[in-house]
Design brief:
15 helices; alpha+beta; 4-stranded antiparallel β-sheet; homodimer; Alpha-Beta Plaits; Aminopeptidase
Chain lengths: 458, 458
């Protein structure tokens, strides 16, 4: 057992107590009633960074919730790592479904239950304790560190990108570490090397100025809800490919090597379908499930509404109908060009008898880091030390806006290392963190600083 | 001026007072709080029939609101006419949009404003006053009469068809008169000779057992809202024809003569589009608007919902999505066979990765009465006398469940004669009835009894 592992083992019950303090602050970013809690949590994060010996700690206010920055830059010959995480959490409702209260952390069967335990306070805390161990054991840090912790990740990271744009020098680094992804499965320490991008829209079809009687007018005017259905259906072809002209032009195809590596991961499609409650998985022809959600772009209708939605029947032609539509993007799709194509496609498909309005909401590029990048390989060595097992390389179908911003604005590789399990119930009742993974994660990160320090500065 | 026209002219202010009494009863059938008002209104109708000299008047209770029946059968050599109308009304909200209170009738510019003025109390009242005029002027009625007035027309006539099935002898007649349709336009007295039928469904697509993260699963499982859109879109082809196999098999095509007659009616499509607030009318290729809504079947999405419908963005795959879908039918489409085809079509189109549930709600056959039917021609002569102008023959795109039941159960021709204008604001604030049309309608109906009496019994 390494000295770091021994240190973590010795202090584990104090670590649980300290993380529990952090978890008790209900920093729900979406809820205006918790605004003060979010602010208090930012202060807590700043205090933790100061106690860790950061030389400079600053709370940057934004039009929303603050960003907390900390730095230690006393290793001039060594590279600089930028650590990203977020201290805000999802709402906890429905409260009745929690076995123990969401903001009163509780340990059962080696799991720490609390809102934010996995997403993302536990993973932020993992970084703090790795620093503590290094100070205590070695009396120094092996490389320069910058921390940036966000309070708006759960509400779209709206102020992160502008902050990055105006503070590029402050955050300049050689490599970034983002701990906001999950492990592939229990017992599979994971390095995530790719995220999908996002383009999110609200699409409204307008018909008559008010609801009409479907007897008097049915068949004589365009029905906005049916037109909306036609437009949405036109986005996909019979092979489950996206039918927007030029949509795949810039898509980077997976290499045979990458497909082989993904195929080697243990994933049982039938069992997954059973667990999700669907008759079968279903996606683009020619790709397996993991390829579909990791490597291939997709389209989803996130919500739809219009007309009469009460019990019984009402015979109307609704005056309008609306859908929320999201596209997940992969390298090298540009969200703005894709949004242009999306709009052109729908406008061209909209019949004369209706009007179409498309609102662009969120947009983020996909992020992929080459698996043979020196920092990524160094991080993998560290994870192997922390977990006693080689990590698997995975991608995520999700989008982390901050990672996309870091990649685009700072142009540095990102190591994505997370310790939450896929069934950690993030965003759901009974969120929990496996404590064994937390302790191995702390050890991994401490080794990671040492491993990354061996890579030359950019 | 005929003696009947003179009688109506002489008594018109009393008629307005009496109709206003009827209109003051807020017989809103859909609202449980108005249940006693509906009951009181049924009693009012029964009292009116007794005062008109009906020999037998009966209030039949149903599991919902009562039916009121009245008969006068003292003309043994003459045919029997069955008169249908309804005494229930639509809700009056939003109240703030009424210029005068909905249940305090008020005359302005020759229009009587009140909820139910046109739909349908004014048209029921028209029949009563025609009887009164005939008694007063001639001391007798020219034919046998049966009245059946319903209290559930505005909530789907659920108990009318079962009542008809169990009281076919009671309601047996040679011809039915239904006054619940509108005039083609101001100055165009109208006989309606056709109604469309209806098949109404609720369609739900089920996917995963709970909402899923669209990043982690998007592209790998079927999205219920998108599948629903695909299913709805599959119901129509690019010519705006319904794409269900066999859907048109039993459709009776319009004759050249009927198309010529419809083309002769004054209808400005561009002006109609402007008035409705749509960029253009839009319907099945090869037919004009009036043909589309009168003669051709149609499909409409009456409502649709699923997933996230709040402000902002939420990246989920909804676990389910639902739509209300109605088909308007024409002769000789059978609603049950059409419903079978509809279900088969959607089930066949539903992808493996989702489950589909279809609930059948309402169903009614189309009704068409040959324009050369002797009763219809007799009625047209009467309307010409009442309005001093030949009536136009029109159809309606709507469905009157009671008319479909009468046609199917009793197998008799139906004369549909209504005096409401298309802009009478039925079902909307400021509903009103043109009093001139009411008075001409009373005269028309009195003449109608005389004209119908000349036709032999079946």
């Amino acid at each position: 057992m390494s000295d770091i592992a021994q240190y973590v083992h010795r202090h584990r019950s104090r670590f649980i107590d300290e993380l529990s303090q952090f978890l008790r602050i209900p920093s729900i970013s979406t809820d205006p009633e918790h605004r003060r809690d979010v602010l208090q949590c930012a202060g807590y994060v700043a205090g933790a960074l100061r106690r860790l010996g950061m030389q400079r700690v600053e709370v940057f206010s934004t039009p929303g919730h603050p960003l907390v920055y900390g730095e230690w830059l006393e290793a001039p010959e060594r590279p600089t790592a930028l650590v990203y995480g977020h201290y805000d959490v999802q709402p906890a409702d429905p409260l009745v479904l929690w076995d123990t209260p969401p903001f009163e952390p509780s340990v059962r069967d080696g799991q720490l239950y609390a809102r934010g335990a996995a997403d993302d306070k536990g993973q932020v805390f993992m970084h703090w304790k790795a620093i503590e161990a290094l100070w205590q054991l070695h009396g120094r840090l092996p490389l320069n560190l910058k921390f940036i912790f966000e309070g708006e990740e759960e509400i779209g990271s709206r102020h992160f990108d502008p902050f990055l744009a105006s503070h590029a020098n402050l955050l300049a680094a050689d490599v970034a570490i983002v701990s906001d992804t999950a492990m592939f499965a229990r017992g599979y320490p994971s390095i995530c090397y790719g995220l999908r991008g996002l383009a999110y829209f609200q699409v409204t079809v307008f018909g008559p100025s008010h609801d009409l009687h479907s007897g008097s007018f049915g068949g004589g005017i365009a029905n906005p809800a049916l037109v909306l259905a036609q437009l949405l259906a036109s986005l996909k072809d019979e092979h489950n490919r996206i039918a927007i002209a030029g949509f795949y032009d810039d898509v980077v195809l997976p290499t045979a090597e990458e497909r082989r590596q993904i195929a080697s991961l243990p994933f049982a499609e039938e069992a997954a379908a059973r667990e999700l409650g669907v008759p079968a998985l279903s996606g683009e022809e020619g790709y397996c499930f993991l390829e579909q959600v990791w490597l291939r772009p997709s389209v989803d209708v996130n919500g739809i509404w219009g007309g009469f939605t009460g019990p019984g029947s009402k015979t109307i032609i609704p005056s309008q109908a609306t859908a929320k539509v999201s596209l997940r993007l992969v390298p090298n799709q540009d969200p703005n060009r894709i949004a242009d194509r999306f709009e052109q496609h729908l406008q061209a498909a909209c019949p004369q008898g209706a009007r179409l309005q498309i609102e662009r909401m969120e947009a983020a590029r996909a992020v992929v880091v080459p698996r043979d990048n020196a920092f990524v390989r160094a991080a993998a060595r560290a994870v192997a030390q922390g977990f006693g097992k080689e990590p698997v390389f995975i991608r995520s179908g999700g989008t982390i806006g901050a990672a996309a911003s870091i990649s685009a604005r700072l142009g540095i590789p990102i190591v994505m290392f997370g310790i939450g399990l896929p069934d950690a119930q993030t965003h759901a009742p009974n969120e929990h963190l496996d404590l064994d993974n937390l302790f191995r994660g702390i050890v991994s990160v401490a080794h990671m600083w040492e491993e990354l320090a061996t890579i030359g500065k950019a």
